[in-house]
Amino acid sequence: MLAPPAPIRALAFHRRLPLLRPHHPTLLPHSPGPPPPPPPPPRPCPAPARFLMAFSTETAGEEAEEEALPGPAGAGGGGEVSSEEWQRWGTSSPLPTVVASVVRQLLEMESSAGEKMRFGGVGSKLKGDFKDVEDRKHRAVYQTLADSDQKLQYYSARQIGCRLLGSRGYLCQKCWLPMEDCMCSKLAPCNLWRGIRFWLYMHPKDFLRQNNTGKLLWQVFGIQAASLCLFGIQEHEDIMWDAFQRSGKEKVSFLYPNKSATPKSVNDLKFDDFAMSSGLQEGVQLEPLNLVLLDGTWSNSAALYRRLKERWTAIWGEEDIPCISLSMLSASVMHKLRPQPAWDRTCTAAAAAGLLSELHMRPELSAFKLEEQAEAVECSLDILLDALTARRVRLGRSITRKQRHRRDCI
Length: 410
Description:
Its EC number is 2.5.1.25. It contains 11 helices and 8 strands.
């Protein structure tokens, strides 16, 4: 049960009381005290306070500097997240029930506490006294969940819910950059060959992250050709796996290195004659080859892979899932700004561009202009890098990435 507003305000007041210094003469209730000090001279009124929030433009684990921005609307303002608002962030799916429930709980707690939520730091985390109340509440809920899958769903929904509320009125809903840095007008859309479909299997900590590159794929190709699937959100995952079952396991591959018992390359991908012929015909329906990109930090990718493998085994009874590796991987332009743990690891969009380039080199696919589609993704990466760099320069932040591996590796 939530504490009433009065104790919360009392707790906040108590935290502002100064600690007694050693040897400080404490006064008894009725003892005469020294005369009060003269009042301090008046100071100019400060500017109106603004709620703060910041998103990281570094990889996970690095501290982000906070930037001033308007806070989200409270219970009397923005209210609950609608399906239309949800879909504007880059998905065609309905608003997941568990995410809607978390958002509703946050708004109810805000109303009971009598103060607006404030967000800030990496991942749009809650700030202030409200954070302590919400933290106790969510820990209590978490302990009531006995099933590990329910705990994962609640964890993911809470991450996503905070990001949704903390980004209102601040981030562009298409490019996930602050409104003043929106790059949408600079991006040129491009049609992806209908013989393939990208799936962005995204960790919730990458959702609405400014320097995430997976979002570029649906900005360039559209949300039907490059679909978002959020890790731990059952409704999202069911949509993706239903598509896999319609296509058949032969038309599903995961771009993830060194995990299959028999590693495969792009040349091992199979395209049937129907897919090859329909790619040049208008109005022909086909089940595309599903290419899954694991979108998250390298430290989180292991959890993404394990969950994919568990679902694959449950559906098709096979321990080994079909993974492919790129043979000509080059460093992404984002390496200039965002560190990577090793020279041979790259960002999601660069991996997609590399995959399209290697598909283009197959003679039977040369007619589908896959090289042009790869160039469209690379161009979007350049635009994102320029936008992030310009923002950091304007805010007086460094544009030199931290050294994470040996210089002679690149």
